[in-house]
Every structure is written in C-alpha cells, then in structure tokens.
Amino acid sequence: MKSWETLEPDRVKLLNKHFTPGRGGKKIDKVVIHHNAGVLSIDQIWQVWQDRQASAHYQITTTGEIGQLVWDRDTAWHAANQHINQTSIGLEFSNSAGANADWPITDKTIEEG
Fold first, then answer.
1. Among 56, 65, 90, 107, which lies 20 to 30 A Cα-Cα from 46?
2. What CATH number is attached to the domain comprising 63?
3. How far apart are the first and last CA of the chain?
4. With contact defined as beta carbons under 8 Å apart, do 90 and 46 qualify?
C-alpha cells in the first residue's frame, strides 16, 4: 500500500466497464474477500474483467502490491448479489499457484489485504 494513512493503493488502474456507478444509496458495512483462482497481476486481472462481467475494488498480488480497479464510491460486481455488492468493498487475492497446489495465497498477499 502506497499509504496506509490515506488508504492510497500502490496503483490505480480503473476498469471502464463491469461495475455500477454509485452504490444505490447504500452504505459500506463489510469487506468481501475472494481469490483469483489464478496467479494474476493487476494488469492481468484488469484484462480478465474487461472480458468477463465481474470486478472487485482491489487486487492484491503475490508480492502484496495493491491495485484499485473500481473506486470505493462505486459498486463492483464481485458477490453475484446486488445488495452485497452495494454494501461491500471487494478484495481479490492472487493465488501463488494453481489448483494442483490447492490455490495457495502468500503471507504477503494476506498481510497487505
């Protein structure tokens, strides 16, 4: 994280689709954490979400780099439930290996997330 004091991520690479502007008048009251089911960088997950109708607010890489892909004020499409999406921040954790290794996540990814 570039700044924990101001909650500034290491990188901002905003999606131009697959999110909803605003939060439908709802307030954030939770964080939803998912894993990528892949070893993905910020640029790679950005590309996945350009092609797939899904998104999250942040991607945390295997090295702990945090990338913001959807502004907090907007609704990411990460929980397959409109109410949950509107009332949460979505975090995506990159895995450090694939299904054959049971999708592990590095300690650094968890710590930064």
1. 107
2. 3.40.80.10
3. 9
4. no
| pTM for this model (two decimals) | 0.94
**What are the backbone dihedrals phi and psi of residue 107, each rounded to the nearest 5 degrees, phi first?**
-60, -40
pLDDT digits (tens, 9 = 90+) for 44-56: 999 999 999 999 9
Q: Is residue 76 part of a domain?
A: yes
Q: Is residue 63 part of a domain?
A: yes
Number of domain units in the chain: 1
- Between the CA of residue 19 and those of 4, 12, 107, what are the distances in Å? 25, 15, 29
Tell me if 94 is assigned to some domain: yes
Query: Considering only CA atoms, which of 67, 57, 113, 61 is closest in space to residue 88?
Result: 57
Report the C-alpha gap between 76 and 1 in whole angstroms: 20
